[in-house]
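Dig into what follows:
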Amino acid sequence: MHFHIPEWYWKCVLHGYAVKVAAILAGLLSAAVVWSEVTFFNKEPVLSLFAQFLNLAKVNYDYFTIEVSRIVVLHAVN
């Protein structure tokens, strides 16, 4: 008899947790996108989460963070 222990652990133990964590992260990101869309036109105070992240990156001239956040948001919308 030949047992594939890593495959068993993945299918029986880890896969369920990985799917649950992915679902929770997708739900949180979706809620953040909806909140940012609802508060898009507020100038003061800035309520959009993504606008806050971009403003923080803009202050530090962190171009990499701006690009990564843009890519994450665009992929979450699609």
